[in-house]
Specification:
It is globular and about 60 Å long. The termini are far apart. It contains seven helices and two strands; from the N terminus they run αααααββαα. The chain is an all-alpha fold.
């Protein structure tokens, strides 16, 4: 069996390289972000006002989004199957990697979506003087439902299509397996998993992110 490796994959097979250091830094940064967002979420739910106002609920949603993404990033290196190339910390399985990828991808899309929702809140309340009660009744609930359903249903479909797979970079995300099969199947072989992961990621994650930032 001839295994073709890209330059990045060859580099990742050596734990003492810059990509491994990036993995350590990424995990450390995600840990700090997780702690900060958890503190913010707890401050909101334990404060006197709690979740009584839309602004508080949107900030809470943004904090939970970051918590979800951070847990996905932190767990990815450990959730990968042990035979993943260059995965020094891998102790997981395909199912564990899928769950980690589900969390990270969901959080990646949730954060810009809730950021957009918060921007829309200020636009309607401050610039257009919409009453807070009207925002809650006509806009807010639609934002929460739309954001949650989009990510829950979309990522569930991605799991069903085997889109979440391990990468040598230490992440479980939407990619084909074996690595490179989406780009050059004649070199890396046909995809046994995640054949449509590229287009699915564009629709589920990249598309909404671009729309939110454009908005």
């Amino acid at each position: 069996i001839i295994v073709h490796l890209t330059d990045s994959e060859l580099i990742m097979s050596n734990p003492n390289n810059w990509q491994y250091k990036v993995q350590v830094l990424r995990t450390s940064a995600a840990s700090i972000s997780l702690a900060a967002s958890t503190i913010i979420a707890l401050m909101i739910v334990l404060s006197t006002g709690r979740l009584s106002k839309p602004y508080r609920r949107l900030i809470f949603g943004l904090s939970i989004s970051d918590i979800i993404q951070s847990i996905g990033i932190i767990s990815s290196p450990f959730a990968q199957p042990p035979d993943t190339l260059g995965a020094r910390w891998a102790r997981g399985s395909i199912s564990a990697c899928e769950f980690s990828g589900f969390l990270m991808t969901s959080g990646t899309a949730l954060i810009p979506m809730y950021t957009f929702a918060l921007t829309l809140y200020f636009l309607l309340i401050v610039k257009y003087k919409m009453p807070v009660a009207s925002f809650v009744r006509k806009v807010e609930w639609k934002l929460h439902v739309g954001i949650i359903l989009w990510n829950l249903i979309g990522n569930s479909v991605a799991v069903a299509k085997d889109d979440f797979n391990a990468r040598p970079t230490g992440l479980c995300n939407m990619t084909g397996y074996p690595i490179g099969c989406n780009i050059a199947p004649d070199v890396y072989g046909e995809c046994s998993r995640g054949k449509d992961s590229g287009s699915d990621a564009l629709i589920l994650v990249n598309g909404p992110i671009m729309v939110c930032f454009a908005g």
